[in-house]
Structures are given as C-alpha cells and as structure tokens.
C-alpha cells in the first residue's frame, strides 16, 4: 500500500520568501509522485510530476521538487513567493502500473503575507 | 470549455433524498474517478472506472453508487443522503492503458459542493 504524509496543515510565508512544502511517501515499488495545486473554488491542477527520470523536477509557476529516494521525500520549493501562490497544495503518489491509482496527502494551505 | 465538467456546481438537499452528481469529459480518456474532499482529510477515492464495463470501489464507497453511461460520462449517486456526506466532490479523468508516465496524470473538474441538511 502507498501513503503520503504532508506534515502540518498550514504554512505562512512573506512575499518574496522561500516556499518549502514537505512531502514524504511510502511505497513498495518505485513511485510516481505528483504535486497538485487547488486555488479557491477551483479543481486541482497539476504543478509537476516525477516519473523516474530526472530527480529534480521543474513545474509551472516557478515551482520545483526534488525526489530523494534515501529520504523518501518529494518536497516542493519556490525561491520567491508571490501573492498569487496562496492556495492548497496536495502531494500524491502512484505506482507505475497502467491501472494505478493516486493516493493523496491531506494537503497544505499556503498563505502569503504582503 | 472545460475538459472535465461537473454538474451541478452547488447543491443543497435534505436528509433521505436521492441525488445524482454528473461528470462529463471531452479528453477522450478511458479512466474516470470520483473523490470527496473534506477539510483536513485531503481527497478520498469513492469509486473509479477504467473503462465503460469496469467499476471499482474506492476507500469510502459506502452510501454511494456510480454509473458509467459512456466513455465520457460518469455519474455519482447518493441513494439516501445523510449530513456527513456534506463535502466537496470532484470528478477526475486519466488517459490510456499503455503505462506511459503521462497516463497517470489526473485531470480534475471544478467540483460540486454538496450540503445535506
């Protein structure tokens, strides 16, 4: 069985500060990993994905994440937060199989202070 | 137009009523999913379907049923709604059966906010 742990439910940063959202996973097979973002009153949209190629993955809106197998982590970062980054962020894991499903973490709400 | 469309966007109903949430997609994907989102609990899978003849229970299927009317349509029903089914419901799709990495990406609708009084 796979699982995702996102510690904490809320992160607050100042505009221009580093954003770091943590994600740790558990998987019995090499995983595929995803970060999704949910803006208020919207569905989830994909930020970035890791599918066993480069361990440093770049996504939309300046976000990136690094897959670290030894730490079973896939933390999301952005060097400089913008007000428009305020949203809820979900980490998800799946196995590489054709009929795999996603398992989501509980989500982290990011607030950006002016 | 959205690739994954959910109707209605908002619904208020009473305990004991039967309601249906609908999802349609224009992405041509084989696989469709229904999730519910509750504050602090993330997204939990209710049902999923890998093609028109395939329906599978997710982790929280009790009290729900689904129908895959066509490749593009996947409906979720609450046979007798209860207050703890108040939540935000999402439909999602993903494509193909080749096992290519991109096939695991799920695309979400805008959600249906359901309140059961």
Number of strands of chain B: 11
Percentage of residues in DSSP E strands of chain A: over 45%
**Average of the residue pLDDT scores of chain A:** 92
Rounded radius of gyration of chain A (Å): 14 Å
Using the alpha-carbon principal axes, give the shape of chain B.
Answer: globular
Number of helical stretches of at least 4 residues of chain A:
0
Biggest interface and which pair forms it? Answer: A-B, 26 and 29 residues
User: Between the first and last Cα atoms of chain A, what is the distance in angstroms?
Assistant: 41 Å
Instruction: Tell me how many strands of chain A there are.
Output: 12
Taken in chain order, the helices and strands of chain A follow as EEEEEEEEEEEE
Are there runs of chain B of 5+ residues with pLDDT below 50, and where? none
User: Which structural class do the helices and strands of chain A define?
Assistant: mainly beta
Described by strand count, sense and barrel closure, the largest sheet of chain A is: 6 strands, mixed
Name the helix and strand elements of chain B from N-terminus to C-terminus, one letter apiece: EEEEEEEEEEE
Enumerate how many helices of chain B there are, as a single number: 0
Sheet of most strands of chain B: 7 strands, mixed
CA radius of gyration of chain B is 14 Å
Classify the helix fraction of chain A into a percent range: under 10%
Low-pLDDT sequence parts of chain A? none
> What is the SS-derived class of chain B?
mainly beta
- Euclidean distance between termini CA atoms of chain B: 32 Å
Protein architecture, described:
With 114 residues, chain A is mostly beta strands. Helix content of chain A is 0%, strand content 51%. Chain A is built from no helices and twelve strands. In chain A, a hairpin with a 5-residue loop joins β5 and β6. The N and C termini of chain A lie far apart (41 Å). With 117 residues, chain B is mainly β. In chain B, 0% of the residues lie in helices and 56% in strands. Chain B has no helices and eleven strands. Chain B has strands at 4-7, 10-13, 19-25, 31-38, 42-51, 54-57, 64-70, 73-78, 87-94, 107-108, 112-116. In chain B, the strands form two sheets. In chain B, strands 2, 4, 5, 6, 9, 10 and 11 form a seven-stranded mixed β-sheet that branches. Chain B starts with a strand and ends with a strand. The mean pLDDT of chain B is 91.
């Amino acid at each position: 069985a796979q699982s995702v742990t996102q510690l904490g439910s809320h992160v607050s940063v100042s505009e221009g500060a580093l954003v770091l959202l943590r994600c740790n996973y558990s998987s019995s097979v090499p995983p595929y990993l995803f970060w999704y973002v949910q803006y208020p009153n919207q569905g989830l949209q994909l930020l970035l994905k890791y599918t066993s190629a480069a361990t440093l993955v770049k996504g939309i809106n300046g976000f990136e994440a690094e897959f670290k197998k030894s730490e079973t982590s896939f933390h999301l970062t952005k060097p400089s937060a913008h007000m428009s980054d305020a949203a809820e962020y979900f980490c998800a894991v799946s196995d590489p199989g054709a009929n795999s499903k996603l398992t989501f973490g509980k989500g982290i709400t990011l607030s950006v202070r002016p | 137009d959205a690739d994954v469309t959910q109707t209605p966007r908002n619904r208020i109903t009473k305990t004991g009523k039967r309601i249906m949430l609908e999802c349609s997609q224009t992405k041509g994907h084989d696989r469709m999913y229904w999730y519910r989102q509750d504050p602090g609990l993330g997204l939990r899978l209710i049902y999923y379907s890998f093609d028109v003849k395939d329906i599978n229970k997710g982790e929280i299927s009790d009290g729900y049923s689904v129908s895959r009317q066509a490749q593009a349509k996947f409906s979720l029903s609450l046979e007798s709604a209860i207050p703890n089914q108040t939540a935000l419901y999402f439909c999602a799709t993903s494509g193909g059966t080749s096992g290519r990495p991109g096939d695991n990406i799920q695309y979400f609708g805008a959600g249906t906010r359901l309140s059961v009084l």
